[in-house]
Amino acid sequence: MITLDRVSKSYGAGNVAVAELSLEVGDGELTVLVGPSGCGKTTTLRMINRLIEPTSGRILIADENVLMKDPVLMRRSIGYVIQQGGLFPHRRVFDNVAVVPRLLGWDSARVDSRVNELLELVGLDPKSYGRRFPHELSGGERQRVGVARALGADPPVLLMDEPFAAVDPVTRQRLQNQFLELQQGLKKSIVFVTHDIEEAAKLGDRIAVLSTGGVLEQYDTPAEILGRPASAFVADFVGADRGVRRLAVVRIEAGDLATPAVVSPTATMDEVRRIADGPEEKTAVVVDDNGRLVGWVSLDGDTQGTVGTHTEKFAAQVPLGTTLRAALGEMLQHDVRWIPVVDDTERYLGVLTPNRLHAAMRRSVGGTPVES
Q: How many angstroms separate the CA atoms of 281 and 158, rounded?
């Protein structure tokens, strides 16, 4: 969808802001530009919608060279979000969101429908918020209005310049989560600027790490950036705790799970001990006839009777696709050595153990699997 082909920006001899930057953003993909101050992140973003003209190179959107188009008309087909939303302070929320549809000549009924739809999409009641002014909103609400305005004419491309940087940490996390939910449905091609590697890893499909002068150091998935930095600069930028950060970008897959013995509540304890895989297996997972999780049963000792009378509930369970960080957090919070994983219909799939978690981390960067 977006191609930067050897794009450069310089301000006189020896003052290079961006140096022959080449990268591609796929259709529906969110790419994050990250790096220290002075690395050309915002300059690159502004060159895409021609708020800054590149010194050389090509910028293509849907295979069309934006440098050959009318910049004003071109910008109306690109959503743009900045810190605090960049709202017009003298215009009400409704009128802020309606800006681009009105510039495009939409009739009033279509504009009204679109604005109401967008405010609801970002979680703001049109009746409650439509007539408010920006100064009557919280920082998080202004940011959501900014996102709604950027989506006004349903642009295929969205540019976001540190949109969540000016809000408190709790609001920021909530906005990030809401934005991820929006993107799952909208599937826009997004270029997102941040200086925060944790935010980049959480939001991005791919991350472009830039060094001073707009030099592209690495362009890859969050797991690869955190797991296999391509240079000393990248390793230093993402930090010594990058292994821990990787837990937040790797999700549980079915192949990551261990599979201890599975038994029915109606089985006898003697039957379970016979089918358990070796004398060292001390626990079995109990599921009902529909494959849904009931609990677990200890195989220690010589308890008799049916499994159901000895079954204990799991302290927690997580769905397939949960991040390793969230799963590990549940394990630590409940002080358990493994945690069951279920599908979206609550059917039991297997358990995540510390060894299997380690194996998933290695899998995320093509490493050799670890035996359970």
A: 53
